[in-house]
Specification:
Largest sheet of chain A: 8 strands, antiparallel
Number of helices of chain B: 1
Number of helices of chain A: 4
Helix content of chain B: under 10%
Oligomer: heterodimer
Number of strands of chain B: 17
Helix content of chain A: 10-25%
Radius of gyration of chain A: 26 Å
Structural class of chain A: alpha+beta
Number of strands of chain A: 17
Structural class of chain B: mainly beta
Order of helices and strands of chain B: HEEEEEEEEEEEEEEEEE
Distance between the termini of chain A: 70 Å
Shape of chain A: elongated
Order of helices and strands of chain A: HEEEEEEEEHEEEEHEEEEHE
Largest interface: A-B, 30 and 35 residues
Strand content of chain A: 35-45%
Chain lengths: ~280, ~300
Amino acid sequence: MNISSLLCAGAVALVVAGLSACSPSGSSEEGIHAQVVAVAQGTTPPHAHEHAFTDGAATPKHTAPSFKTFRRGDGMKIDLQLGLLNLMPVELQSCGVSVSGLLDTLGGLLVGKAHAHAGHGGEAPAGAINVVAEDGTEFDLGSLLAGPGRYCGLVVALQPGMAAVTPKHGDGLDTDMSGTSVNVAPCYYTTTVGMTDEEAAAETEHLCIQARFQGPARTVSLPFAPVTLDHANRHLRVTVTTHYESWFDDIDMTLLAEDADQQRRLAENVEASLEALTAP
Amino acid sequence: MNTPFVLKRSAWALTVAVSAAWTPQALACSTCKCGDYTITLFGAEKSFENRFRVAADLIYRSESQGQPGVAERSTEEWRTLLGVSYSVNEDLSLAVQVPFVRKEIEDSNLARQKAEGLGDIDLVARWTLYRQGEASGRHLAGLRFGVRLPTADQVRDGGGNRLDIDVQPDAGATVPNLGGWYAYFRFPWFVSLSATYFSFGDGHQDFAPGDAMVASALAQYGVSQRVALQFGVDARYSQKNRFSGVDDPDSGGTLAMAFGGVAVRLYEDLLLNAGIQAPLLDELNGHQEEDPSYRIGVAYDF
């Protein structure tokens, strides 16, 4: 073996040794993102009742095993048996200039992600916010990614459910949210307007309906106190609260089940009931 | 008695040629985020029987893809190429080249990923089919063919989670490739033209790089026996990449880059080279921004 051959062998050995010394390694670092959750907030706890289940667009009997009782703005007593929202976070809003956020990189999967974690109330189909669940129950709406900046709001969309979900079967209420943004089933007591709380609580004459808003998606901007997101502050938690007790204000309950204008007003009330709060 | 001198001088000319003619192609391919590059150890030089060469190159490049400020992803890449080549005879040379890659990506939301590991290994052959001119030929032409092997590591982070395909050392795809080349030798000038088609198979993570055509035109001027200046243009057209069967709108297209560099012979058979490549024509699809690339390399002939 001559010198050249030795050098060749040495060079090859050097290359092989160099390669074997380089084992793969990697690391990842989380970026700026906002986790968005939704909660329902009222002033009264849910009730259990003893009425038998019945079907029908307008019936004097409750259908769901539990409901939330409250009084709307004019004093009318409402037993809310079903209150489902299909709510999706769209973007964080920069202070001053709008639009500086984006959906999760996988876009459409965000909905799936949110849906996969929602529905803690037990009665709601996956993906919907169930306001009849215990107040304070959190529904995960997924995460939004955002660049560094100062943010002052969250844009959310009240939008029709994209995928058909399995409706509840049997004698219960229809919880299918496909094509539906808001799905409610209130029982209302028309004679309780002007009554005291004690008098209203004693009132039993009521009608129950189910109504849906199935119009196009609606977006709303929810302001919050300015927050700066940067290298040092990468995580933001945004809680969207819906105050469901104002949902039926100024709505003609006798028309709600069938009338599109009343249903649109319901959607507007739902939008108006939303607020956003932030935490690191 | 003159023969050894002639051989050594040829080796020098060939060595300079190798850096000049082929390395820029590698940079021209850099628009592929998974390191679609082509570097061989051959160059367009005149091979001679039993030539054995060892070479190492370090290439730095960066690019960004996606809508700026919203969904932009920036990539920085350091690619180390180690290789050996052997000339079976003056017409046929074989080479293997092993890449080690370090990548960092940063998204608009400051999320970062880093990975380093073995890339896809290239096996390449260069065959001279045509010679015309005195001695070993002034005009040479032939074929280049090879295959890239799916040897790239699938790198994971400290938590065991597999990192994004964009930061992986390479695509992990099998890539047969075929091309033609022409070279003109007349000291102090050397001119090379080449074109190669890369047919990409599916890579890791359901990623399918788009097929690519790379063409290169390069000239070299020997200032002296020890220093040569290089300049040229490299172009690349590639189809869009596909993720899970869906086209990536921010991939593929046409890119042409200007190249300038220098090669310096330090000892009889040791060559250092360095060069810069900058975008000349950018017709890339969607949001893609290619930055200048930098290269430094060393080659030694035994």
